Amino acid sequence: MSTFDSLGISGSGLLVHRKWLDAVSDNIANINNVTSTDQDAFQERLIVAQAVDYGSGEGGVRVARAEYGSAEGRMVHEPDHPLADANGYVRYPDIDLGDQMTQLIMAQRGYQANLAVVERATTAYQAALQLGKG
Amino acid sequence: MTSPIGGISFPSAVTGLAGVTGTAAPSDAVDRTAAAGDNGFASVLVSSLEELQAKQATSDGLAVQAATGDLRDVHDYMIAANETKLATDMVVTIKNKAVEAFNEILRMPV
After folding, report:
1. Residue B92 burial (CB count, 10 A)
2. Partners of residue A15 in chain B, C-beta under 8 Å
3. How far apart are CA A3 and CA A1, in angstroms?
4. Is 0.80 surpassed by the pTM of this model?
5. Sequence-distant (≥ 6) Cβ neighbours of residue A73 within 8 angstroms
6. Is B50 on the interface with A (CB under 8 A)?
7. What is the rounded CA–CA span in Å between residue B82 and residue A123?
8. pLDDT, tens digit, for every residue of A51-103?
9. InterPro entries, alphabetically (chain A) (predicted)?
């Protein structure tokens, strides 16, 4: 394709990890949303990553789609809550904060790893160009 | 293939060089391009300059987006700027080498 392919490929990896970070931050931001039992709870956002193309030589990764977690959520007994139903239940999103923090670390590390590839590839290309300057 | 340095025989110790058959291709290519005229070095330089110009346009567009706050991904601009810098370096290096080679030919005693 072009001379500096690896930069574009790492860029696609960066984009996917940025979207993953977005999804995790959305999940954490909405983790304490309370809804009444006749409504859906906040659904966890999940990012599905996919290789751009197998075998055709075009590298990179892309976000194929977003998946959503359970709309049922967790039923919590809080009779004093203004949104509680006749039995005293409300809905919380079915999101585990520990799991989200783990995903946060993975997304961050993945982002950093792709940036490291950009850096190394740039250094390698520059070294190759130095060959012509002598 | 007739080589300009055909008279200079390599020391027998460097027989490993015979395995590098790919080195024959560039001189063939030069012969062809010299004969073709239009498809010579100039067109190579023009196409790489056009590619460079496209990269610079992309990079400039992203720089404007960064300034106006429309940039969605910081890394997009950084990678584009990086790629543009590398492409510029490459074109300039190729140009310098070509001019150097041309000057070398001009200095040839006739």
Report:
1. 14
2. 73, 75-76
3. 7
4. no
5. A35, A40, A41, A42, A91, A92, A93, A94
6. no
7. 11
8. 988 667 788 999 999 999 999 999 999 999 999 999 999 999 999 999 999 99
9. Flg_bb/hook_C_dom
